[in-house]
Amino acid sequence: MSRQGTVDVGHLVAGFGMDGHACVPGLATPEEVAALRPHVAAAARQRNPEPPPLESRDTYGKAFLQSMNVWRLDEAVRSFVWSPRFAAVAAALLEVDGVRLYHDQALFKEPGGGPTPWHQDQVYWPLDTDRTITMWMPLVDVPDEVGSMTFASGSHRQDVATFDISDGSEDAVSALVAERGLQLHTYGALRAGDATFHAGWTLHRAGPNPTSDVREVMTVIWYADGARATAPANRYQEADLRLWLKGTEPGELAAGPRNPLLWPADGA
Ligand SMILES: O=C(O)CCC(=O)C(=O)O
């Protein structure tokens, strides 16, 4: 840690630019994560009070219970999601001066939950910048059998036809990865509080959960300050514009009340 309490990730910046992913072990302490966990779980239950049985869901639904913008439900979660320590890592890896919050999501892969098909996050985002990044932080130790995500290194720099998360994206991207000989990388088992970061256009997937424990993960997405909202290119982007960029019209600076500037932080 530096004197300002930020984590020095200078050694990861070049690799992130090349590969579109990085891992920061121990970004949150076990104590911080243990204190946060019940707050995220309660907020996630509020968002998904009665999930339908796993067997009745489609592939996307089997991959995880997805609870968005849980920071709005709980002060402890807000303080974690808005943490300048995490936002500073995001800004450093993106090599930008400032980042704003896009949204958070808790991603709980239940026991017996299926794989998360290959996809690119930015397909869903009506933003005019490719300086976007997701932090994926397990709130519990993730064992080898579950694992963290697999990334196609350098795919954020390639021209890839866009796919939404589905069986179709799994098949099409698997074929594309093989055709182009993209290198796959996973950081494997992670401890609670470790974090991976990936660029919005990096192709990634995750395996199923064959264990009897929930894979509890918290994610936060940021984009470079100064980005503008774009006209939605698909129905997902229409929903994102309304929900996560609420109050911002296409063409305007994406700087609405749900998108606070989290780095630089006040007084940093
Ligand atoms: O947690 C997962 O299974 C997938 C998460 C993911 O795709 C993401 O955070 O962008």
From TrEMBL:
One Gene Ontology MF term: iron ion binding
Keyword Metal-binding: yes
Cross-referenced Gene3D superfamilies: q2cbj1_9rhob like domain
PROSITE patterns: FE2OG_OXY (PS51471)
Residue ranges constituting the Fe2OG dioxygenase domain according to the UniProt record: 89-225
UniProt entry keywords in alphabetical sequence: Dioxygenase, Iron, Metal-binding, Oxidoreductase
Family statement drawn from the similarity comment of this UniProt entry: Belongs to the iron/ascorbate-dependent oxidoreductase family.
Protein name: Phytanoyl-CoA dioxygenase
Species of the source: uncultured Acidimicrobiales bacterium
